[in-house]
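BUG: 3D viewer hangs when loading the predicted structure for this chain

Environment: internal workstation, default settings.
Expected: structure renders.
Actual: progress bar stalls at 90%.

Input used:
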Amino acid sequence: MIDRPSQSSPSAVWCLAAMLLALPAAWLAVEFPAYRGEWRAGLAAYLVILLAATAALVCFPRRWEGRTGWLLIAMWALALRLCFLPYPVSDDMNRSLWEGGLVAAGENPYLAPALDERWQAWHDDRWQGMNHRDKTTIYPPGTLWLFAGLHVLTDSETGFKTAFLLADWAGVLVLMSLLRGAGLSIRWALLYAGHPLLLFAFAGEGHHDSTMNLALLGMFWCLQRKRLGMAWLLLGLAVQMKWMAGLALPWLWFASLRGAGDGGAAGGGALALAWVRGNRRAWGGLALFALVQAGPALPFAGGLTEMARGFMHFASEMAFNGPVHHLLRQALDNQIRLAAWICAGLFGLWMPYLLWRWRDRDEGVLLAFGGLWLLSPTIHFWYLTWLIGPMCRWFHPAWWVLWAGSGLSMVGYSVAAAGGGWVQPFWAHALQWYPFALLFVVWMVRAELGSRWRRRRGAAVDRPADIRGPRWSVVIPVLNDRAMVAANAANWAQWNRDGGEVLVVDGGSRDGSADAARGAGFRVLTAHPGRGLQIAAGVEAARGGWVLVLHADARMDPGTRERLDQLVRAHPHAVGGAVGQRFEPCQGLLWGVEWLNHAKAGLVGESFGDQGQFFRRDWLRANGGFPELPLMEDVELSARVRGSGEAPVYLWGGLTVSARSWMKEGLGRRFLRVIRLVLIYRWDRLRGRTGARDYYTMYYGRQPAGGRDEGGAAGGRRDG
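Structure tokens produced before the viewer hung:
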């Protein structure tokens, strides 16, 4: 899928430039580590790497979606991680090395804290550098066996770090395969490949959470390919790396269940037996999971009670940077345990709510971890790496805000380095957590509204026709566009197969646009002029389950329809999104407009009409229908899709549109006029006063020819 000849496109150049920019930022982070009090340099390096990864994501050329992109992303990810190898390790590394040696010697670290006299012979330099020597280890048994195995292979910090680095790098490869299977661009893997949280945590400080991340990504990969047995095995391994991976267990259970069929007149006992028999794979998976938990734990059975006691102590007596817990501590006169129990109670309510509302949604796992991050008493920055991979697949702006703010964790390191203890200053804590918490709550409210809509619509939302292959209606508004219709008719005709249809809605053309469309075999309707009014008329007459809106000067690139079909099948709950466009001809600052449009649609979910907006027709009808506005209909539609609770999906390109209006009017003038009008509309929408202005006249300086029916209705519609 070549988007344009390489010699004429600066996308590749800018993408490579952004990726290369991350390398000197990595050097800056290594030379001035936060552990030595250099939090400003560390934070600057963090933000530069994150922005470089985001810029590379936006500029990533579509022609690199194949083997070239895979190789480039994989090599860049490896290079960045190798740059961080000299970074000073965390004191957790000393515990990993010490406990690995202990287990390799046949000892049980769960029996007593590291300070206990029974470990007197093991009080070496690594023991001296350990943290929390007065507490029993709370790592799962599988982690201790991992440390022991690494101890046998290489008893060194570099060896341990290299193993964790390679696990993290392997996660990049698995994520690219996940994205491909979901019909998404592999460009999203750039956020994982160049994510500063991962670089600092694994290649830098040497935390072993990368092994859990790899197992979780593998679980999602197996679920995508219906390999449930392997999914259960990998989840079991993930829990053996970090206990918190168990939060994904309920959703894996739901994914393994199948209905018991039509019970007919059978009694309750027969139905129950049929349900159990029909779900052997779920019970078998759960048994495999239990086996993976029991096997590594048996040799440590004598110390598991002490381990559980240590875990409870960690959860209730220690606190650092937990957002809700921090506020409760302030309100409760620093009563850490009471605040921890309140947070535990809130989380105890949060999980049943998610299991009730999000039984069949992958996002349920993300929401579970989001609640954990907000309610946990202690949140070190590497905890936030746990689901970066799945977050890239189900992107929401809340995650980017969380990632950006997490660099402020380095302020806490600097305070500790200066002898002030593990304390995050309030300003850093607030900037890190409060914007994310606000966006998280907004997301939850919107998601709840979307969940109610799906329950109201019932099975019609995921009807079999949508799963086999969605049927499309393409709506194209025209007004004196005969030349465009003639030029693009053959390209549009591909949508007339497989039950699809093309509807051309004429707004009163005087150049024969309607006749040209009829001659091409398209359905033709007439409506009052004004793009939004014409589109509304077409949507009302459409018969497809999905509707794609094209402007008259747009044509589809080869393979775009197949990519759209794959995208909506892979996201059965999606309600809308956009394709993405490139301008032709494209020169000067118009490249910047393209990239800004990509960034808005891909990262924020805001798209314009010339980007090829599409939506589920039954969702739109249940939510007021298409916005009947002569202008700004695309901004309003985009806002409604984002407010549905389902993240808009984006194809990152597939349309070629004419740049004639931009070139004719002047790029700077057109750009400023669009931005001004969008800002005015959003301000009016926020105040509920969008009917107080005539946006069409504000933009074009005249009324739409033919006027409008009272109330803005698109009257006068008829088939041609």
